[in-house]
Specification:
The complex is a heterodimer. By secondary structure, chain A is an all-alpha fold. Chain A is built from nine helices and no strands. The chains are: A mainly alpha, B alpha+beta.
Chain lengths: 228, 354
Amino acid sequence: MADAAFWQEILNILLLSLRVSGTAVLIGTLIGVPIGTILGLAQFKGKQPFIFFFNISIRSTVNTFMGLPPVVVGLVVYLLLSASGPLGPLGLLYTPTAMIITQLIMAVPIIIGVTMSAVGSVEKAIREKALSLGATDRQAAWMVLREARMGVLTAIIVAFGAAISEVGGVMITGGNIRWVTRTLTTAIVVETNLGDFELAITLGIILLSMAFVINLILTILQLRGTKR
Amino acid sequence: MPVIQAQNLSKEYFGKRILEDINFRVQTGEIFVLVGPNGAGKTTLLRILDLLEEPTGGRLVFDGTSVTRSAKDKAALRRRISIVFQQTVLFNMSVYDNVAYGLKVRGGNGADTEKRVSETLERVQLRGFEKKNALALSGGEAQRVALAQALITEPELLLLDEPTANLDPRNVSIVEEALSRVNRERKTTMIMATHNMFQAENLAHRVAVFNEGKIETIGTFRGVFGKPSRFLQDFARLENVFSGVSTVSSEGTSVIDVGDGLLIEATFMKAGDVTFYVPPEDIILSTSPLVSSARNVFEGRIVQILDFGSVVKLRVKAGKNFVVQITKKSFSEMQLNIDSRVFLAFKASSVQTD
């Protein structure tokens, strides 16, 4: 039978995971939604080879970064923050801040990419409609973003889902220090290695439940968004 | 002074000519209808007229001044023009907010906006729809909301790109009636693309026939098409078309049972399943039963009145729904109204089949 300390540690792990991923996604939203909106609005139409090339490059770059392997991001952030790295003097390695930076780097491309395609899919029709009704360029852009709101929300939720379930990045940059930088995913890895299946399974169930809730919210939003 | 004038307008996309040497002047209060096959350039012309696209060559003169390329000038000019697209685009918000949008972006205030939204919804027969989400409407209702969005700002020029192409006859009638009334009451200039020859005939002051990016001819409907053939007229409408089972009578005519207790006599001799139509202008309408040579006489009630200016179309329920076309003058002299009891009479020879 688990004692109070057991549950206290679980609570600590859960809260840290939520804090790290929540902060990363919040900052990622503030950076990614404006960029995604601008890229979605600027469709870079034109037959000039340069514009065409520019358009293709931006889109494939964003798409590539959307699938960044967390371990690679973790490695890069580690090299930057390690004592001999350029940002070493800041002393951020093995702190929750280092983990937030890692997840932020993963979250931003996801938010940019999904926002960009959501905005791009309604851009032409909604923008022209708003302009034809007398809107200024700014009012029309605002309306496009408003019509793409379900897509933007999807972007944020998808990014959060990716961040909370990511393990390689936070393992490398956080160091999986008990009570300090141990998250749901890194705890599962270490407890499994130690053979402490009770804690690992409990954390696994919590993580799975969170994934379920996230998908539940997404599905409800999508159903509401397509209701005719 | 012409409100809008196109001078040698042309448009190219990727080296392909879409419009070539387009010239016309449209006067204030005129309904100018563009007819022609798909891909003839009608939509492109309307998009250029709404300043959503730049012409490759030529000039557009609006109200005496040439349209410049300045974005600011175009935005100001665009506020005097409205467009209804063929594909309905509405915002994911209430009908009220959709219709009020044009006023909102112009800085309209609350009380005035509210009044104008309800007046405009009245015009398209959607009163009481204010709170519904615009995306939850049927296709016809949605297109009527789009029309209300375009009308609320009282544009000087209204552009219509096949506004009724995807609508059923009832919604078509509502849209046509609203357009016709707005044109009469506000002297709104309209440029409309349509495939519907009947619509062109009823609404147009002048028509321009488009083909392969060029205007082939401009003139009044009668001037361009002469007296339209039966085929042309009836091709465009879906009115008074009935189906039933026909039996050839001993007198050599056909009696067709169309259901609802209605037997219609026709001069053609055909047995079995037939589909036929009765031209609305061949039906005589009277307030008492007539003694006449007409073989088909039915009693019914008026269920809908559609005003087209000089002519009025009535929908009469007499077992089935019939559409009857009469002049405005007869309409007022007979003092007809919704639910008036009327008699319909038409000859057996007016019943047409292919």
